[in-house]
């Protein structure tokens, strides 16, 4: 799986990672603009989820810079093509990269938890569940980060095998720890993607908005797919540690960073609703103005009256649809509600369907009877 017909991963890794960072940076930037400019009066400004997302994006930038530096030393190339100093420098930066990168795809889960709080306003028990899962995941991540440096004594022996008297723990320890952490991270990705959907669909907001929010958050299940691919590649990567340790590392970096970027983007999509609404409004208004400019100004008074009547009726219909359908609410006005709609099993619900029809009324002319005579 790691080969993919490539002789090295240095250039490929830089292209992929910097491209993903640029896309994520644009989306996060639009998220911040929407929160600052279109925020509701109750929740104007940035929230905890925004700060977590920005911090994760900053970590992504650090990892991209470190990968660029490491590939300059030879990370991503076959070890046989490097001299001893290049190999030592590449492996040293690889240890630093892995200690930082693992936080990049684990911390965005807290952004998901925070934005779910804004949307669902869940209670104490759910908060304990969500934050408990997130914190235990970070504990595993911390263990991996520390073990990257503690597995060898002295620490420098992890990347410089020329040091006399150095020893390293069995690679299976790191392999098992990485497997468990990645598997747990994959479980949380799929959990936070689908667990909130039933609660989102019960919110007191338009159906279209509920579907949009649920769909945006469920896209984070793509991070689960990436995690599964990464798990399948871990075994091969650790098997190559003894013979070719510099070659497979950027491939794992790409998978780990992709998981983090997916979570960052998916946690930002529900906040971009106001921007979509503004763009849609401008496109609609532009089309309306174009149609008006192309109308025949010299039409008759009767045609103008009919056109005005239709426009007035259409405006009335649109206003009624907005008041009934609730389209004035948008996905982005987070929190969308303060609490889910109450569900009571014994209550009686009544649904009222309202329909409107328009009818053009023509004035009737009174005709004079033929039998009358004018004196």
In short:
This protein has 375 residues and is an all-alpha fold.
Please describe the structure with a list of short key phrases separated by commas or semicolons:
single chain; about 375 residues; Rhopdopsin 7-helix transmembrane proteins; two-stranded antiparallel sheet; 12 helices; elongated; disordered C terminus
Descriptive overview:
- The chain has a domain at 10-269: Up-down Bundle (Rhopdopsin 7-helix transmembrane proteins), CATH 1.20.1070.
- The chain has helices spanning 10-38, 48-73, 84-104, 108-120, 124-150, 171-194, 197-200, 207-218, 221-239, 249-268, 273-293, 301-325; strands at 152-153, 167-168.
- Strands 1-2 form a two-stranded antiparallel sheet.
- The model is unreliable at 295-347 and 366-375 (pLDDT under 50).
- The longest helix is centred in the first third of the chain and has 29 residues, at 10-38.
- It is built from 12 helices and 2 strands.
- The termini are far apart.
- 64% of the residues lie in helices and 1% in strands.
- It is mostly helical.
């Amino acid at each position: 799986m790691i080969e993919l017909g490539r002789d090295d991963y240095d250039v490929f890794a830089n292209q992929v990672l910097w491209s993903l960072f640029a896309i994520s940076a644009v989306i996060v930037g639009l998220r911040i603009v929407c929160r600052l400019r279109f925020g509701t009066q109750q929740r104007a400004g940035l929230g905890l989820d925004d700060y977590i997302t920005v911090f994760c994006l900053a970590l992504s930038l650090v990892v991209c810079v470190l990968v660029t530096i490491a590939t300059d030393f030879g990370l991503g190339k076959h070890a046989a093509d490097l001299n001893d100093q290049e190999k030592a420098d590449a492996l040293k930066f690889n240890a630093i990269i892995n200690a930082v990168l693992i936080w990049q795809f684990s911390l965005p889960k807290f952004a998901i938890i925070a934005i779910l709080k804004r949307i669902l306003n869940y209670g104490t028990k759910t908060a304990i569940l969500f934050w408990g899962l997130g914190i235990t995941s970070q504990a595993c991540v911390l263990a991996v980060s520390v073990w990257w440096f503690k597995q060898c004594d002295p620490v420098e022996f992890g990347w410089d095998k020329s040091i006399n008297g150095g020893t390293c723990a069995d690679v299976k320890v790191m392999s098992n720890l990485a497997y468990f952490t990645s598997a747990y991270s994959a479980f949380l990705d799929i959990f936070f993607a689908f667990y909130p959907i039933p609660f989102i669909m019960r919110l007191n907001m338009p159906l279209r908005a509920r579907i949009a929010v649920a769909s945006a958050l469920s896209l984070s299940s793509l991070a689960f797919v990436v995690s599964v691919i990464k798990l399948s590649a871990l075994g091969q990567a650790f098997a190559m540690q003894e013979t070719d340790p510099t070659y497979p590392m950027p491939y794992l970096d790409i998978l780990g960073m992709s998981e983090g970027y997916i979570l960052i983007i998916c946690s930002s999509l529900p906040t971009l609703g106001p921007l979509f609404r503004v763009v849609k409004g401008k496109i609609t208004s532009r089309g309306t103005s174009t149609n008006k400019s192309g109308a025949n100004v010299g039409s008759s008074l009767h045609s103008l009256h009919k056109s005005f009547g239709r426009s007035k009726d259409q405006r009335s219909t649109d206003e009624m649809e907005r008041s009934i359908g609730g389209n004035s609410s948008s996905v982005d006005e987070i929190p969308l509600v303060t609490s889910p709609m109450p569900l009571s099993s014994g209550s009686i619900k009544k649904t009222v369907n309202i329909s409107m029809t328009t009818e053009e009324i023509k004035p009737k002319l009174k005709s004079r009877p033929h039998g009358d005579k004018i004196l």
